[in-house]
Amino acid sequence: MKLTRLRIVGFKSFVEPTEFLIEPGLTGVIGPNGCGKSNLVEALRWVMGESSYKNMRASGMDDVIFAGSGHRPARNVAEVTLTADNAGRTAPAAFNDADTLEISRRIEREQGSNYRINGREVRARDVQILFADAATGARSAALVRQGQISELIAAKPQARRRILEDAAGIAGLHARRHEAELRLKGAEDNLVRVEDVLGGLD
Ligand code: ATP
């Protein structure tokens, strides 16, 4: 799954609608200090399902919304949309009916955020699994934050194993296993209840 376009509106310093086309090959982002290079990478991580505002260098998730500048008032909404090429049909079955996937996340001040894939409202977990299957995602080793290399060197073996699992594209299996276990537990509880009811009929 190849990422082809990133569209940002009202997110951090990107107050105006801004679109980045991700062409084949290597893409470099250059600019003076404070121009928004890290904000751009954070927009990418955010739309991929980042749930920690601390990882967004914020003191609350609403802080990702444009907070106003000298002559511009603050905004109440931020939205990031990522377009991915799914011609190889590698997306999870639920979203695998289109050649192009548009994944978007929108946050409204004090209302929290929601996600959509091709216009259909989905859970954060659906978006996280979609990217985990593609060996990328908000917490994956594919996106390297400032200071992350030294953290990796000092990391415990379990944390390092997670990086290998990301690279192998199997990180999504953990989330699926957890969901399957919850469903199994629900089915077991229902069975116990049925047995109780049947016992009452004897
Ligand atoms: P450096 O090269 O120094 O790492 P950078 O290009 O990565 O800088 P960023 O850290 O992405 O720059 O951007 C910092 C700018 O973003 C600051 O000017 C800051 O005021 C602005 N900014 C961050 N959050 C918001 C927000 N919610 N609303 C408006 N501006 C914001």
Helix and strand string, N-terminal first?
A: EEHEEEEHHHH
Count the strands? 6
Low-confidence runs: none
Instruction: Name the CATH homologous superfamily.
Output: P-loop containing nucleotide triphosphate hydrolases
Q: In the CATH classification, which architecture applies?
A: 3-Layer(aba) Sandwich
Give the N-to-C terminal Cα separation.
57 Å
Strand content: 15-25%
Instruction: List the bound ligands.
Output: adenosine-5'-triphosphate
Question: What would the CATH topology be?
Answer: Rossmann fold
Strand order of the largest sheet: 2-1-3-4-5-6
The overall pLDDT, averaged over residues, is 91
Determine the number of helices (DSSP H or I, runs of at least 4 residues).
5
CATH class descriptor name: Alpha Beta
Question: Over all CA atoms, what is the radius of gyration?
Answer: 20 Å
Largest sheet: 6 strands, antiparallel
Which percent range fits the helix content?
25-40%
Shape: globular
Coarse structural class: alpha+beta
Q: Please indicate the count of domains.
A: 1
